[in-house]
TrEMBL record:
GO terms for cellular component: plasma membrane. It comes from the Bacteria. InterPro entries: AmiSUreI_transpt, AmiSUreI_transpt_sf. This is Transporter. Belongs to the AmiS/UreI family. The chain crosses the membrane at residues 6-22, 34-51, 57-74, 86-107, 113-137, 149-167, 173-192. Pfam families: AmiS_UreI. Signal peptide: none annotated. Keywords: Cell membrane, Membrane, Transmembrane, Transmembrane helix, Transport.
Length: 210
């Protein structure tokens, strides 16, 4: 069930990345953020209710709220024309929590590939904090490109693999995932350097979920 939400998180990350790049108007991005945000809040609630006293299942579902709240926050902020600092500072919290979930994936769950994915998400939310929370405008294009390039590889692809029984996780695959992630971030830096940096991020935009 969680993988269904992850599938569409890839779409909203892509849209939000393009929004930061100025390719999608903020109000045009709001509906998808609201749709996916609602999905990423309903899904963990159902999973937690079904889990009963299963602590591992509850822990696995708990991370989904980080992203559900983010997307709802972004969608509402874009429609209401709110300042981006609120989303930015919430992203600081999400970035820190993502590091914890990454550690759990590596050392508790035996899923190093998803540990790498969590690290990618922590990087993304850290960038959202810097751009939206602290107003560091020179990072806007880099953040937009990083979000756009990481959207499908960290969300939609693993979701499809998991739903079709093709997902595998071991140290070798995690290393490959890490190398791909680094290359995509390097490409984002290259692409960002070719464009003009806006004066300030005009509206909140954020990714995620698992």
């Amino acid at each position: 069930m969680a993988n269904v939400g992850l599938l569409y998180v890839g779409a909203v990350l892509l849209i939000n990345g393009l929004m930061l790049l100025g390719k999608v108007p903020t109000r045009a991005a709001a509906p998808l953020n609201l749709f996916v945000g609602a999905l990423q809040c309903v899904t963990p609630t159902v999973l937690i209710i079904q889990a009963g006293s299963d602590g591992d299942a509850i822990l696995a579902a708990s991370g989904l709220y980080l992203f559900g709240f983010t997307y709802l926050y972004v969608g509402i902020s874009n429609l209401a024309g709110l300042e981006p600092e609120g989303v930015g500072w919430f992203s600081f919290f999400v970035a820190g929590a993502a590091l914890v979930y990454a550690g759990l994936s590596f050392w508790r769950d035996g899923d190093p590939v998803f540990g790498v994915i969590w690290l990618c998400w922590s990087l993304l939310w850290s960038l959202f904090f810097l751009v939206l929370g602290l107003g560091i405008a020179r990072l806007t294009r880099f953040t937009g490109w990083t979000t756009t390039l990481l959207a499908l590889p960290t969300c939609t692809l693993p979701a499809f693999l998991a739903m079709t029984g093709g997902y595998r996780s071991d140290g070798g695959l995690a290393l490959i995932a890490a190398v791909v992630g680094v290359l995509l971030v390097a490409l984002a830096a290259l692409l960002a350097g070719r464009g003009r940096t806006p004066v300030r991020a005009s509206a909140p935009a954020a990714p995620a979920a698992t």
